[in-house]
Fold this protein.
Amino acid sequence: MGIARSVMTAKKAAGAKSPRAKPAVPPPALKNPASDKPGLILDAALDLFRQHGYRRTSMEDIANAANVAKGTLYIYFKSKDELFEGLARRLSAQIAQDVKAALARKLPFEDKVLAVLDAKLGFVYRWVLSSPHASELTDPTSQLPDDVFGPVDQALRASLADLFKTEVKAGKIDLKGAGLTPETAVDTLLAAAHGAEMGATGEEHFHERLTRIGRLTLRGLRSGL
Amino acid sequence: MGIARSVMTAKKAAGAKSPRAKPAVPPPALKNPASDKPGLILDAALDLFRQHGYRRTSMEDIANAANVAKGTLYIYFKSKDELFEGLARRLSAQIAQDVKAALARKLPFEDKVLAVLDAKLGFVYRWVLSSPHASELTDPTSQLPDDVFGPVDQALRASLADLFKTEVKAGKIDLKGAGLTPETAVDTLLAAAHGAEMGATGEEHFHERLTRIGRLTLRGLRSGL
Amino acid sequence: MGIARSVMTAKKAAGAKSPRAKPAVPPPALKNPASDKPGLILDAALDLFRQHGYRRTSMEDIANAANVAKGTLYIYFKSKDELFEGLARRLSAQIAQDVKAALARKLPFEDKVLAVLDAKLGFVYRWVLSSPHASELTDPTSQLPDDVFGPVDQALRASLADLFKTEVKAGKIDLKGAGLTPETAVDTLLAAAHGAEMGATGEEHFHERLTRIGRLTLRGLRSGL
Amino acid sequence: MGIARSVMTAKKAAGAKSPRAKPAVPPPALKNPASDKPGLILDAALDLFRQHGYRRTSMEDIANAANVAKGTLYIYFKSKDELFEGLARRLSAQIAQDVKAALARKLPFEDKVLAVLDAKLGFVYRWVLSSPHASELTDPTSQLPDDVFGPVDQALRASLADLFKTEVKAGKIDLKGAGLTPETAVDTLLAAAHGAEMGATGEEHFHERLTRIGRLTLRGLRSGL
DNA sequence: TATGAATGAGAATTCATTCAT
DNA sequence: GATGAATGAATTCTCATTCAT
């Protein structure tokens, strides 16, 4: 089973033009793509976690959904928590890719910032936050090692800070007037954007919010205010 | 045992003047104020949930911490989930009070908005989100009845929308220019503010963020941009 | 709330003529009939035991149904098991009365035997065996003291044996031919009659069976076979 | 542990000639006959249920007696009630076999009827009714699915009815004279026989009763009465 | 690698009984 | 006598994890 994986690995149709167009993840090359056991296991797990939450998904459920024996799970993941960590790592890797792609696109400042926000938050929303059990998936153990999402986040912040600096130099935005440095400005933007998920009722709703938050925040940074 | 309640019910020193001043909760009258069993149980539960999370706090733990027998928990709360709901209701009631107080204060527009945001989010942050197990406390069952937080939220939104309208009439802010109605503006503001919690490392950090988000967002609404 | 007792104590309309007519129990005189607490408790208990079985009826249920506090039950009955025993004693007393009445009636031999069987088994059937939880009511603890039903049974057997002896003397039945003594004949008859309850689907069904068993058994005892 | 199973599966010495001869059960083929886990569990359970009753036998007790872990019980039986149902099914299967064997024996009418009654009721008596907790074993949940004992009972009734019809044709018995059809005659006989269990003090006592009831009932059916 | 039967600590919940008022 | 809050032992059931095959 696993609509999850099929979607997560599906290439989106190419020629999208909006800032939100975001391609997805090329599956890592496998000798026999049909037997990427750990991948299949994670697919099944994601599906089930989203549907029933972490607590109410048993290792047995995952094994059944992945068509492997329970013991097999423990060959690839030392524990249920590590299996979850594996999920987080895969998610993180995919976000990294999407963010990188967004940054590489040739777009005006504001559009690019929105594209980046969408790459990061939209992805998470689609795969995690839109689940009725999102809170359990945020981190069921509160133990995700720093290296799971940390590096991606660092890189993102650095890149956005650079974008901001450029824009400041160009006189388009005025951080000082708002009492901010590039870093605090980025932090503020990301935090605010993160709030878009709050009680969002669907992806459309989420995106409208995200866009409004992004635009309003950037508006507050404009020069000559 | 129970710093939670002592803090939650402690009267804050009166004459605070900063926008962040937070009044608190008049305990409901009790026959024997020294033995508000359900209250003591909730105190113990909140403490433990914050420390160890919902899943890893057993009813036995709660009973021990509250110095009552396991069975006593079930006199006041039908199940572990209902106990959690009780916690949420108490939280909600306290937020409602604080928000109301913030709205009643005589402050300039921006300060009042920040005060309201702080009343709502700061309270939640202090009692829920600052826990390493925050995600589990958001709603372990994804089943909190609508009437727990809904009404408070509705009222808050309505009040903020009124504030905005007044400010629009006074020509101080310009929602149309930002493509917003009072309601979408409030939604955007609240959502953005909600993001302040994201990975905050402490209450100070949280507040700085919240303030920056609030100010930046309001800045984006100013007239004559 | 006690349909049980009202029925159990209700006087049946008088002039019934069939062998099956069986009057019931005059309530013991009480100073204040409205406050026969133990009686009301037993009424409630019987009701509930019949509906939900012994196991699934809690002392709290009984207390609620009897409109007394839980602690009150323990004033009149030392334990749940003793409460049940009280029920059994009341039942036994009522059977004793009905059997006595049946024996006192002026009826031909076969009719009288059937009337006695009905007094004993019909009563039990109506109040115990017709419940879906009969098996639990037969004796939830397997600990009913001998003196609860024993004496009634002894008396019944003795009386029936006398009836048989008389009938033998009159040459109407022939126990020797069937290899029986009066006592074994009575035991056989009672045991067989007892089987009438087996899977009976209602009181009518039960009575047809009981009658057929009685008649067929007595038929097997007829002289000149 | 487990005299239960050893007896229940023990082959009785072959050539028994009395009406009471009881053949037994060919154990289903097992990979490892020494570890029929569900069978061993049922053995332990039957032992304990007979000794202490259903309620007072905990799953833990059963697990200990069967030398398996508590969780193992739930591999084979979804719940305590289903475990009981398993017991009933095994019992039913064995009764079916014994009844079939009794019907296959070449015996005169009356002896065969007695043999059949003994096959059905004697077995139940030995394994269930002779327990001091029989009432709890009759059906602790009042929920045994119809397909557990129903089919066996149906088949038995049909076979006995056939026997009766044959005997009627041969002029040996006279159902009409007793106001019965073959089916009601069978029902009456079975019900009466069922009563043999009532307060039986041991297997001998039970059998005497059963035999007397059977003979007396059949005697009542004889032609030319 | 892969399996899946077996494990057993742990958790939530129930309820007969007690006892201070 | 009457109450009902409080108790805590007992019970059923779950599920992450192990390990012999």
About this structure: Chain C touches chain D through 36 residues (CB under 8 Å).
